[in-house]
Specification:
Strand content: 15-25%
Number of domains: 2
CATH architecture of the largest domain: Sandwich
Shape: globular
Largest sheet: 4 strands, antiparallel
Helix content: 25-40%
Radius of gyration: 18 Å
Number of helices: 8
CATH topology of the largest domain: Jelly Rolls
Strand order of the largest sheet: 1-8-3-6
């Protein structure tokens, strides 16, 4: 991808790659920018590569030259411990941008793995570094998105450290529902949940057996239904109250249309 700065000066309208609308919706949920700015975001999504499930987008210790935009599929940030066990520290959903800090830090302090088969746009660091200079509204949008990602991480720390196992799972489901709603991937309180019990266990600091028991409990209490890889939240108000889920850390007061 060219790093010519003229590319930011009035990008012509072109067809959007599949999944790019979710990236625009994600940034547009926290910021307002022009159609011309939106077209620049489309141009960032041109170099698209398919990553198989369970393969790293990038590994801990790497010195990346690109950052990644998830157009389709799910990915996760993770750390591997000395004993080989894994802690997942974030799920990256369609529309999310990863390792934005990689434009400043020279080495990755964690890995990013594709949970499912994923289509990932690769953006050279130089392009992203130059973008805020020529498109300040987009620069602010990226900054806000990064701050919200940090708020999500803080919420995950509290969730894993202080909530009971059933409430940890319920809180995670409420968050995924809220984040997927922004990019149009929730219909009738249902959404795809392509996570094994092992993956959920790695995210919540539990064992797969414990996850299985807690899922059964949530089903028996009429809070969720999970069938064929799709999660239905039967009553979001009840589930969020049970989990102590407060939408404020996702900063919904900033939700605006592009």
């Amino acid at each position: 991808m060219s790093t010519n700065l003229n590319r930011f000066a009035s990008a012509p309208a072109t067809a959007r790659p599949t999944g790019c609308d979710r990236f625009i919706a994600k940034l547009g949920a926290a910021s307002k920018f022009s159609e011309s700015d939106a077209q620049v975001l489309v141009d960032l999504c041109r170099d698209v590569r398919t990553i198989p499930a369970r393969h790293d987008l990038i590994s801990e210790g790497d010195s990346p030259h690109h950052l990644h935009i998830v157009l389709e599929g799910w990915a996760a940030r993770y750390k591997t411990l000395e004993d080989g066990s894994r802690q997942i520290t974030a799920f990256l959903l369609p529309g999310d941008i990863s390792d934005l800090h990689g434009t400043i830090l020279s080495r990755m302090d964690h890995g990013i793995v594709a949970i499912t088969r994923a289509r990932i746009a690769h953006v050279p660091h130089q392009v992203m570094e130059d973008l805020p200079l020529h498109r300040p509204e987009l620069g602010r949008a990226l900054w806000r998105a990064t701050l919200i990602d940090e708020a999500v991480l803080r919420s995950w720390i509290v969730n894993v450290a202080r909530r009971s196992a059933d409430k940890r799972i319920a809180h995670l489901f409420c968050e995924l529902h809220a984040r997927l709603s922004v990019v149009g991937l929730v219909q009738d309180e249902r959404f795809d949940l392509p996570l094994t019990q092992e993956v959920v266990a790695d995210a919540l600091g539990l064992t797969p057996v414990h996850i299985n028991r807690m899922l059964q409990k949530l089903r028996e209490e009429g809070l969720i239904t999970f069938t064929s890889g799709r999660l239905t939240i039967e009553e979001f108000g009840r589930l969020s109250k049970f989990a102590g889920f407060d939408l404020n850390y996702l900063h919904p007061q900033q939700l605006r249309q592009v």
